[in-house]
Amino acid sequence: MLQDLPLEILTQIAEFIPVEDAGEFARACHKCYFAILPHIWHQLTLNNTVELNMLAKRLQSNNLWAQRAIRFVRDVSLGSDDQINQPKFSSTLAASMFGIASTPDEQAAEEAEENKRVTRRERIGVFGKKLLNMFPHLSNLVVDFTEAARDFYSGGSGGAPISSATSATETEGPAEDTVSAEQPKENGEEEDVDDNARLPFSGSVSLVNYKSDHSKFMHYLLAPFRRTHHLKLEALPVVSLCDDIDESILTNADLQNLATLGLTHLRKLELSYLDSDFRLQTMQNLLESMPHLNELELEWIFPPSKDDFARLCQVIQESSHLYPTQTNKKASVYKVHFARKQDGDD
User: SUPFAM superfamilies from the entry (predicted)?
Assistant: First the structure.
């Protein structure tokens, strides 16, 4: 019987349990519950900021369950699974498995009521602070740019986000913010929030499905996480080279704005997808703003010419002492990894 197996073996078995069977496995016995617990709560997908608020209320209603669950959370994604392309447990599933959520019908009613109550976008500083308070061991945050445009309000300081009624793949340019800069505060929660203040988070931050040339809003989203050690900026994926790929190419303005963030703690930077003829001075300024950078990954849809790539490598070497160590060509994407030379390398 399962309850006779050591917890260590059950924990290894739990790694292979499909998502749809995780709840049944957790209910099999006391040991199975504790075996599946770290896997359920290690990665959470929040479909929107409303879901985070709902999850917070459910956890607050049972302190014992909250302590057991929150201690395992390491990765959080804002955006649906199909947007982020990473299979993860949703917060609703995780909460319902441990008896701190309502029935599906009750959850739908709660979410509808919450959506009625929320009449404005949330501030990124408020969201980040709330996330770290709920999950103090968080080490990886993935934000879908399309969902962020729907959920967050920059208060006029970070550039107008994409209209929440239109997805990033359908919008031709930044829309005017439909929310007034003067909005009522809720429970005093945002009174003293500074969206440019650095949150005490040094983990990994990924901004995916970014729509190029929205650099001000990108700056706004990343500003609270300037202590991060690993940043990934990935533009919209290219489905076909026959499509208009301008929105999937990071512009000079995107790189220039990234340089103004002051990412002095950054150790690794990933950029997808670069323009094949961006200015070398822009890359130099970006790298010089990151004095502790140890790794750099660059991706192109249309790779630079041999001469242009040689000049780029020279700039990267002089600015950050990084050298190309690995080159991959997959489908239409060309990726190069840069790192510091190890002792004994030529």
Answer: F-box domain
Rounded to whole angstroms, the Cα distance separating 258 from 255 reads 5
Could you tell me the pTM of the whole model?
0.80
Whether the upstream peptide bond of residue 323 has omega within 30° of 0, thus cis, is no
CA–CA gap between residue 208 and residue 267 (Å, rounded)? 19
pLDDT above 70 coverage of the chain, percent: 73
The overall average pLDDT reported for the chain is 79
Could you say which residues of the chain have pLDDT below 50? 87, 100-101, 119, 156-160, 163-189, 191
CB-CB contact of 333 with 299 (8 Å): yes
d(CA 127, CA 125): 5
Residue 78 phi, psi dihedral angles, 5° rounding: -105, 110
CA distance 239 to 58: 39
* Spacing of C-alpha 338 from chain mean position: 23
